[in-house]
Each structure stands twice: as C-alpha cells, then as structure tokens.
Design goal:
Chain A: It comes from Aquimixticola soesokkakensis. The structure holds two protein chains of two kinds. By secondary structure, chain A is α/β, with parallel strands linked by helices. Chain A is 45% helix and 20% strand. The N and C termini of chain A lie close together (7 Å). By secondary structure, chain B is α+β, with helices and mostly antiparallel strands. Chain B folds into five domains: 4-165, Up-down Bundle (Four Helix Bundle (Hemerythrin (Met), subunit A)); 171-392, no CATH class; 407-466; 468-646, 2-Layer Sandwich (Heat Shock Protein 90), CATH 3.30.565.10; 651-799, CheA-289, Domain 4 (OB fold (Dihydrolipoamide Acetyltransferase, E2P), Beta Barrel). Chain B is elongated, with a radius of gyration of 39 Å. The chains are: A alpha/beta, B alpha+beta. The interface between A and B is large, with 69 and 81 residues.
C-alpha cells in the first residue's frame, strides 16, 4: 500500500535519507525542515503518517506533535518520532505528547517501512 | 554520482560545513555573553545533527566524538553546567576538532586518537563526565525501538470509544476478556488458562488484544496492526463487542472492544510481539502459541455466546475496515464531554516542559485549539532577531528555495556566457564595420543585447559567489590557536561576513589570510604586559572586514597593536641588503618593505609564524588572484592590511596593446602607469640594455616584442609607449609596446590545459573582432628577463 508520508527533520541529510527510503518503498514523501514548516505543509496535504525529528529549530518535535494532536483534523494521524536518543524518558515524553511510535536513528530503511505499515497500514 | 547514497553522503558533508558554521556562530554568541536556551540549542543541535548523520554512514569515530561533545553541551542545555569563558574556549576547540573529523571522514583520511584526546580530556575535566561505557548500541543501525513499556498509565482512563451501532449490548463479560488496565476493571480472568503444558508447535499464535483508550489517542490503529499480522501468516480476527453496555450506560472513557485473533504462521513469537511494539503498555495483550490440537477446534477461540463481528482480513474488503475506522475517525471528536481534549493538557505536561510552547490550553472545555497562531508567536518570542544567522534561518517559512548544482555545470555556464560575451562583441564590431548608423534598428537592438549580455554575465558570476563567512569563521580558529601559542588574549571581530565572493577566490584566499591573521596576532599585537603598560585594553583585537567597493572585494585585516616599527624595519632591511643605507624612504615605502622576499623569513619569530612564509608570498598569492594588497599603519594604534580583489576569476580588466603586429592583453592591476618615452628618459647601459629614468630612480626597460620573440630588439625606444609594471617584490619594470588600443573586460580562457605552462603568458582571450589575444603574466615575464640580465651581471633592482 502506498502511503503519503510527511517527514519533518531539520537535517538535510536525514531528509534526503528519509526521502530515499520512502520513495524506494513506493511511498510519497513530503519533507519539512522543522515543526513550523511541518504544520505549514500539513495545511496543504493530508499524509497517512508523519515522521518527525525531536530536536529542531523554531518548533521542536514535541511542540509539533502537540500542535498536530490538538488540531481536530490531524489528531488521528499516526506520528513516528525519529531520534538518536533511546532514553526511556524521551520516549515517554514523545508518547505523552501523542506520538504513535518510535524510530531510532540511524534507521534501517526496511524497518522504517515496516514501522510505517504498522501504524498506517 | 548515480548512487543515491553516495549523493546523500556528499550532501551530508556539505550540510556538516553549514552545521559547523552555526556551531561557531552559536559558540560565538555564547562567548559574547548570550546564554538563552535557543543559543545553546543551536550549538547542541549542530553537534547532534552531525552525530545523527555520521551514524547513518557508519562514521563511528565522528559519532563517538560528536557524542561526547553533545553530552557536554547537554549539560549546558539542562543548566547542570554553566560555562565560563574558559569553558567556551574548550567548546571552540571541540568545534574545531569536530570540523577536522568531519573533513577527515569526508576525505577518508584516518582519524587518530591524538586528534581528539587532548580536547576530550579538557572536556572531561570541565564537565566532569566520566568516560562512558560506549553506547555503541545506540548507533548500530538498529531500526525501531521496542521499549515503550511503562507508558500505559499516561493514557489510562482517558479517551473514549465511539458509540458503535451494535445490537444486544447488555452482554456478560466473556472469560476471555482481561480487564487489566481498565479503570473500572473488576477482575482479571485467567487468560492463560488453556495454555497448560502444551508444547508450542510453532504453528501459530492465539492473540488476545484489548486496547486501552490511550492507544487510540496515540494514533495507533488496531486495523493496521492486524494487517501487519496478516503479513506474517493466515489471520482470523474476531471482534468482541460483548462488553459494550447499552448506549445510555456507555462511559466515554472506557474501552469496550477487544479482539481475539488466531495467526497461523511459522514465524517466531518475537515477530508477533514486534507488531505490537508501539502499543506495548497501551493495551492488554496476550500471545500464546497454539497447538495442532487446539487448531482442530477450528478457531481455538472459546465459544462466545455473544454476537461477535468476525472480520476476515482480506485486501480490498471494505466491510473489514468499517468498525475500526469508525473508531479512528470518531473517537476524540465525538466524545461526549470530558474525553480526549480535556485530557490533553495533563498528558502534554511532561512534553511541554521541553517544548518551546508553553502549551496553554485556555480551558479544558475549549477543546481543540487552533495550533499555528500561538505557536508562531511562541517561536518568534524565543528567537531574538539580532543574530543574522538566525534571521536567515527564520526568514524562509516556505520550503527553502535552493538548488544544489554541480560546480562543473556552473562553470560550463560561466564558460558559455563568456562565449556569448565574445560573440556579442564580434557582432558589435561587424555592425560598426558595416557602417550602419547609430540609430538604426540593428544598432539599438544590439545595444540592448549588450546590456542583457552583461546582466546575464553578472548573474552567472553570482552563482559562483558565496558569502565569505565560511572563510572568516576559519580565521576564528586561527586566532584562537595563534593567540594561545603566543600567550596573548586576542579577540577576532568580523564584519561583512555576508559579502559574496567567487568560490575559487574564497578558496585561494584561505592561505594568505591565515598567514596575515597569524602575523597580526604574533607581530601586530603587543604582548599583554606591553598593552597594559601603554594603557591599552588587555585584550588585543584583530578585525576582519569584507565589503564590495567599486566592483571589487576589499578585505581588511587590522589589529590594534603598536603599528609598524619603521626604524626597525628599515634597519633590518638595510641589514639584509634589501635597501641601500643611503636610501631615503617614505613611511609608505618602509611599510612596503615588509612585502620584500627575504624580509620576514627572518626569525625574531616564534614557532608560530616561522613557517618560512613571508608577506612576499602573501602578496604574490593575492596578485595571482588579480588582487592588490596595501598596508597602512599608525604608530601605537595598529596596522591594517587591505586586500582588493576582482569579483571573479573568469573575467579580467585588461589593457589591450599591440606589439609587432600582435594584440596582447596586460592585466590592468599590474600596470602602475603608462608613459611615452622621451630621449631624456632612456639611458642605455649596454648594447641591448636600457633603463628608464623615472622620478630619480631607474627602471629596467623591456621590449615586449623582443621578450616574446616577435622581433629583434630595436635600436631606439624614443617615442615608444611604456607600461610601468609593479612587481610583487616592489621592483618595477617598464614594458615597451607599440600602441595601447583599448581598456576592457576580457573573458579568461585557460591555456594550460592545451599548451601547458607558457612562460610569461597567463591565459588567452577572444577579442571582439574574433581575434585570439594572449593575456600576459607581466610578473613572470619580468622575472624571466631579470634572470637573464642578472646573468649578464647587471643588477638594477633597486629602484625605490
């Protein structure tokens, strides 16, 4: 199943890699530089799933998830958090902010796709 | 570069340079006393992003170092460590090493322990980090984290399930259901009851799945989990609606649905558990192996004497998705009252602490708040707009409109535009020759064409231009290292960092600028004691500025040191035989002695500048860029070196001259003045040796035509036209030409690719009439000639 994915990361390298992994899997990737940019992109597209980094300028991942979850029309979009941290505390925070799942960087593209399918079909 | 990973790798290193730049910026801001969290975050994020990318490419040394640096910055970020000036110095050193490691990784040169050990030691002493047991595990491309446990309580009792339109709702709880985690859960039935001693035969699993409301709020979706299970084998799903109370008794915050699944698969249990990893803690889940015997009972599910919706999961079966997607679509919004939105503020509290948004939901009842507006302002308020770098980051709210282009393509374009310019000039010439009136349509059209060509040329040159900032930032490191080496307190100020300069110019400016900065720190600035004694501030200042001035880039390197000690310079120059003891030199002339070869190689110098590179080398590298360098100094106040460079290396301001029927171009920046020779000016010193007397000095005269082998030397040069060329060593020479034709910009066409290095010739160009003209390298020509004249034991070099 082809998914539309919004990937939010301030690192261009990471965006490039996500883009590559997603498009290789036949998904449509929309990319955003940070949380605020992500919210702007969300105004234009309706992704099946969102992947977001945590530490970003302007609006970080927690704030972004928070904002997405508060908006009625976006509240149900599955969100995977992408981070190098694996500390439970950080996961708890993301879960508390409303994240659906968690991907640890550096990610294995196959597992990324699997995780996406798990939360978004 | 067709391999996409190779491309991403290349772009990673480009991004690293940008990140290193913001890292420097951030540290500089911290050094300037800014301690707000966003500044610290910029630094943290830069290191963090480098680490993240490095991990993706398996650059373990880089990851390792970045991780240590990041850990230290995290201490700062969390306020556990408050850095002082000394600490920031160490952070700067770390940033420098990080840059070294990035470049070493890029160039695939080995990263040695001694590159990192000293700064890591300082870092450790500073922040008191114990050497961590390496968290290598974190960086192995491992994929998805499993551990979401212990989080179930976060969502417990919140959210709701939709009022499903289902019949017969007042059914008793079947045994199978577990009430664990349900707020009003009464008892925990023995789910594993039938899991006695039966050995798992690996034929499949019996799964019971009872989602908690938090599962839905987190955006997880049972349907997709089931689909993922289906990928593992044959799946049968049964939805248990037995716990659904009558509609009027439906409590919003309670989950009523559960699912019983049978998965026939050869996969191990871990594969099944993996599917549920994100919902671990958000549901009650039991997974047990089933046996053949159990399978014989067809479904292995306990008989449910309740209406149950059996969902065969087949692709494209729309009925299948109905119940679940109803949940997905309706849960929080349709909640009767208190449900999800009301619960949000509580749930958000832990996250909000770290987020820039204070998460202000006015009142629980005022449910979904429109996010963009408050966030916008919150984000803005945390970003002071005084720092240009941050302005730049803030400015584009649209996707960044940048394209990365291979430099070769740009250069091809530059080249083509060069051809266009030449072509246009040829066309103009033919039109003129055709005798068309100036107001003819062709002439005016051509005029516009000329204008457009110039605009295109300029625009194309701009593509190659880059802010000089990256170069200036490298100088920050030079100042830090140099000042530490000579034990002086020095601060570098930069101005005009956004001035754009041709990429190649920036690259080739690095060495001379480095040398000048070292000189400024080492020689320009006095020792701290001396400064204090003369009532100056303790800290020495080196200032680096860049600006556009009349079509050129001017870069100034100044210090607030003692200025050039002219008596001493003169003394030294005489000592070294560079000037005669009788010479009367002006201040400016004395200052310029610094540029003489052999002057500064002398070693009053510390280890720092003692690289055998003198200001003469600096001067010649600037000149090879078509630039000029000047020096001004005020005693007791400081010295300024001013470099003036052309905007680009692709075109050149040249003087078109004719010699022996040939057309040649002489770079304008080499020509000091032009004059017509009179009888009085010329002195003959030998059969083929002439000098020109010029304001009291003698300048050797060179016949350009003869030098290039176009003709034999003439008997008399009276009436000849002379270009006075300033040599990099301060010496001058007079080049005799037949005529000066024009002064114009010419497009530089390299010759070395085809002909190798031709002595005295720098390049070629194509003139408006289509003629190819050689561009002279006058310095080279003169040094060749003076080599010959020296052979004839004739030295005329000292023409003050």
């Amino acid at each position: 199943m082809s998914l539309e994915v919004l990937a939010v990361d301030d690192s261009r390298t990471m965006r490039d890699m996500l883009n590559l992994a997603l498009s290789s899997a036949g998904f449509t990737a929309h990319l955003a530089d940070d949380g605020l940019h992500g919210l702007e992109v969300l105004e234009d597209i309706e992704p099946d799933v969102i992947i977001t980094d945590i530490n970003m300028p302007r609006l970080d991942g927690f704030g972004f998830i928070d904002a997405v979850r508060r908006e009625e029309k976006w509240a149900r979009i599955p969100i995977l958090v992408l981070t190098t941290e694996s500390a439970d505390e950080l996961k708890a925070k993301a879960r508390a902010a409303g994240a659906t799942g968690w991907i640890v960087k550096p990610f294995d593209p196959a597992k990324l796709v699997k995780a996406l399918q798990m939360v978004a079909g | 570069m067709s391999d996409p990973m190779a491309e991403i790798r290349a772009s990673f290193f480009i991004e690293c340079e940008e990140l290193l730049e913001s890292l420097q910026d951030g540290l500089q801001m911290m050094d300037d006393g800014e301690s707000d969290s966003e500044t610290i975050n910029i630094v943290f994020r830069a290191v963090h992003s480098i680490k993240g990318g490095a991990g993706a490419f398996g650059l373990n040394d880089l990851v390792h170092f970045a991780h240590r640096f990041e850990t230290a910055m995290d201490e700062v970020r969390t306020g556990r460590f408050v850095p002082d000036g000394e600490a920031i110095k160490i952070f700067f050193a770390c940033a420098d090493v990080l840059g070294d490691l990035v470049r070493a990784s890029r160039d695939e040169t080995p990263i040695l322990d001694e590159m990192t050990a000293p700064v890591l030691d300082s870092l450790e002493r500073l922040v008191g980090m114990e050497e961590e047991v390496e968290e290598e595990v974190e960086f192995v491309p491992a994929g998805i984290a499993l551990d979401l446990g212990g989080l179930g309580d976060l969502g417990g009792g919140m959210g709701d399930l939709p009022p499903l339109d289902l019949p017969a709702l007042d059914m008793p709880s079947p045994d199978l259901l577990s009430a664990d985690g349900l707020p009003e859960g009464s008892e925990t039935p023995d789910v594993a009851g039938d899991n006695d001693a039966q050995a798992a035969l690996g034929k499949g699993f019996k799964i019971h799945f009872l989602p908690e409301p938090a599962l839905f709020i987190s955006g997880n979706e049972p349907l997709y989990l089931f689909r993922a299970l289906r990928d593992l084998g044959d799946l049968t799903v049964r939805c248990d609606t037995s716990r659904l109370p009558a509609a009027e008794a439906l409590a919003a915050e309670t989950g009523y649905l559960s699912w019983s699944l049978v998965l026939l698969t050869e996969e191990p249990e871990t594969a099944v558990r993996d599917v549920f990893e994100f919902v671990d803690g958000l549901c009650v889940l039991t997974i047990e192996p089933i046996t053949n015997a159990a399978l014989d009972g067809s479904m292995a599910l306990p008989d449910l004497d309740v209406p149950s919706a059996q969902i065969p999961l087949a692709p494209g079966d729309s009925a299948e998705t109905a119940p679940v997607e109803t949940i997905a679509a309706e849960a929080p919004p349709s909640s009767p009252a208190q449900a999800a939105p009301a619960a949000l503020p509580d749930r958000l509290a832990p996250g909000a602490a770290a987020a820039p948004i204070p998460a202000p939901i006015p009142a629980p009842a005022a449910a979904p708040v429109a996010p963009p507006a408050p966030i916008e302002s919150a984000a803005e308020s945390t970003e002071p707009s005084d720092a240009p770098s941050r302005e730049a980051k803030n400015a584009p709210t649209q996707p960044r409109a940048t394209v990365r282009v291979d430099l070769e393509r740009v250069d091809r374009l530059v080249n083509l535009v060069g051809e266009l310019v030449i072509n246009q000039a040829m066309l103009s010439q033919s039109v003129t020759e055709a005798g068309l009136p100036a107001n003819s349509a062709v002439s005016t059209g051509l005029e516009e064409f000329l204008q457009l060509t110039r605009d295109i040329q300029e625009s194309v040159m701009m593509i190659r231009a880059q802010p000089i900032k990256s170069l200036f930032q490298r100088m920050g490191r030079i100042v830090r290292e140099a000042s530490a080496a000579v034990n002086k307190d020095v601060r570098l100020h930069t101005d005009g960092e956004n001035t754009e300069v041709d990429k190649t110019v920036i690259e080739r400016l690095a060495d001379p600028l480095t040398h000048m900065i070292r000189n400024a720190v080492d020689h320009g600035l006095e020792t701290t004691e001396k400064r204090v004694a003369s009532g100056k501030p303790r800290n020495g200042h080196v200032t680096l500025t860049a600006q556009h001035r009349s079509g050129r880039i001017v870069i100034d390197v100044s210090d607030d040191g003692g200025g050039i000690n002219r008596p001493r310079v003169l003394e030294k120059a005489i000592e070294k035989g560079l000037v005669s003891p009788e010479a009367q030199l002006s201040d400016g002339e004395i200052d310029n002695l610094l540029f003489l070869p052999g002057f500064s190689t002398a070693a009053e110098v510390s280890a720092l500048s003692g690289r055998g590179v003198g200001m003469d080398v600096v001067k010649s590298s600037i000149q090879s860029l078509g630039g000029r360098i000047a020096i001004t100094s005020v005693e007791g106040k400081g010295t300024t070196f001013s470099i003036s460079l052309p905007l680009t290396l692709a075109v050149l301001d040249g003087m078109v001259v004719r010699v022996a029927g040939e057309t040649l171009v002489v770079p304008l920046n080499a020509i000091l003045e032009t004059l017509t020779l009179t009888d009085d000016d010329i002195k003959q010193l030998g059969p083929e040796t002439h000098v020109v007397q010029l304001r009291g000095g003698f300048v050797p005269l060179l016949d350009l035509g003869a030098e290039l082998g176009y003709r034999t030397p003439e008997q008399s040069y009276v009436g000849g036209i002379v270009l006075l060329i300033g040599q990099e060593d301060g010496h001058r020479a007079a080049l005799v030409v037949d005529a000066i034709e024009d002064q114009r910009q010419v497009v530089i066409k390299g010759l070395e690719g085809s002909y190798g290095r031709v002595p005295g010739i720098a390049a070629a160009t194509i003139l408006g009439d289509g003629q190819i003209a050689l561009i002279l390298d006058p310095m080279d020509l003169i040094s060749q000639a003076s080599g010959r004249t020296k052979d004839r034991s004739l030295s005329l070099s000292h023409a003050g």
